């Protein structure tokens, strides 16, 4: 990977940060998961030939920089009973979307909320909000909540329910 | 190839463990022991249950969640309109790409939605071209232009 990329190539304010070769080795060593042993960071330290304190310090730094969102478990939402998974998509005015996106993202049942490009004429939607529920009715009620919040700012919307997880491995990059 | 959609059978301890592990995992030398103590469990039991939850795919992974763009990489949502008769073939072809991090079937004319994760932004158009070549179908990228909120936590 290059050390740094021009800011223009990544979304606003979410550009790459300064990571060195050791950080990258730590990313590669943990992207499949954290070792499930009593001292997982010590094991990583041994693999990377560095002191355990350095592993902890570097991981904390990557959390502080936003390279790591958090360390934890990613549930399969179907297994937890969240069998209704809806990608709600909305057509709102470009000049209003930042304000509206922040408000939709703040709803407690929205897990991800992004602005994405339209693909006209087939796809007029520019605001994406993922919602999860135990039933379709629950998701549709949540979608109705978003529609109410957007009010007249919503020109069109749809909700795409998922019917199967075809693959879910998380990211894999090489060093 | 599609995973079953039925909820898993979980006991109360599994649920408490899943909820606790979706928080910030401690950056200390013996983090599992610390979490186990907070739940009134033995460390060995926590590790055994965590292994089982991963093996049963109740959890899809356990570890750091990276925001790949901050590490110079790219992460792009993309969709395809796949004819019903070809769906399984195309799903197998798409899933075979290591750049495809996850892939969902959805009810829409655009019926396959997947995320491409690559080490550099240049990897995205290459992966899209390769997928189009193998499947014979166009790929529609939906790169994120702005992120308003991301917090994938679900109460077990």
Characterization of this structure:
The complex is a heterodimer of chains A (175) and B (156). Chain A is of the alpha+beta class. Chain A is 32% helix and 26% strand. In chain A, strands 3-4-2-5 form a 4-stranded antiparallel beta sheet, covered by helices on one side. Chain A has 2 domains: 49 residues, Arc Repressor Mutant, subunit A (Orthogonal Bundle), CATH 1.10.10; 78 residues, Alpha-Beta Plaits (2-Layer Sandwich). The N terminus of chain A is likely disordered. Chain A is elongated and about 60 Å long. Chain B is of the alpha+beta class and 156 residues long. Chain B folds into 2 domains: 44 residues, no CATH class; 75 residues, Alpha-Beta Plaits (2-Layer Sandwich), CATH 3.30.70. Helix content of chain B is 35%, strand content 24%. A 4-stranded antiparallel beta sheet of chain B has the order 3-4-2-5, covered by helices on one side. The longest helix of chain B has 13 residues. The two termini of chain B are 25 Å apart. At the A-B interface, helix 1, helix 2, helix 3, strand 1 and helix 4 of A face helix 2, helix 3, strand 1, strand 2 and helix 4 of B. Strand 3 of chain A pairs antiparallel with strand 6 of chain B, so a sheet runs across the interface.
């Amino acid at each position: 990977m290059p050390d740094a990329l021009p800011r223009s190539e990544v979304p606003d304010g979410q550009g790459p940060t300064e990571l060195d070769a050791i950080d990258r080795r730590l990313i590669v060593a943990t992207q499949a998961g954290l070792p499930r042993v009593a001292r997982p960071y010590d094991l990583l330290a041994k693999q990377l030939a560095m002191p355990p304190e350095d592993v902890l310090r570097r991981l904390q730094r990557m959390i502080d920089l936003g390279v790591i969102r958090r360390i934890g478990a990613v549930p399969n939402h179907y297994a937890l009973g969240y069998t209704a998974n809806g990608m709600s998509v909305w057509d709102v005015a470009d000049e209003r979307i930042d304000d509206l996106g922040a408000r939709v993202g703040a709803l407690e049942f929205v897990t991800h909320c992004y602005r994405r490009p339209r693909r006209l004429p087939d796809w007029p939607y520019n605001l994406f909000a993922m919602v999860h529920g135990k039933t379709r009715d629950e998701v549709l009620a949540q979608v109705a909540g978003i529609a109410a919040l957007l009010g007249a700012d919503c020109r069109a919307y749809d909700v795409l329910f998922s019917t199967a997880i075809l693959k879910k491995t998380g990211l894999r990059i090489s060093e | 190839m599609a995973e079953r959609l039925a909820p898993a059978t979980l006991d109360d301890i599994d649920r408490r463990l899943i909820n606790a592990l979706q928080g910030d995992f401690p950056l200390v030398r013996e983090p599992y022991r610390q979490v186990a103590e907070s739940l009134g469990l033995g460390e060995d039991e926590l590790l055994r249950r965590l292994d089982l939850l991963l093996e049963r795919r109740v959890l899809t992974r356990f570890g750091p969640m990276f925001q790949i763009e901050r590490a110079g990489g790219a992460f792009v949502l993309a969709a395809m309109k796949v004819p019903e008769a070809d769906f399984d073939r195309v799903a197998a072809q798409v899933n075979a790409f290591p750049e495809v991090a996850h892939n969902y079937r959805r009810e829409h004319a655009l019926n396959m939605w997947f995320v491409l994760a690559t080490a550099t932004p240049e990897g995205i158009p290459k992966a899209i071209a390769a997928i189009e070549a193998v499947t014979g179908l166009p790929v529609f990228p939906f790169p994120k232009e702005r992120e308003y909120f991301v917090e994938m936590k679900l109460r077990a």
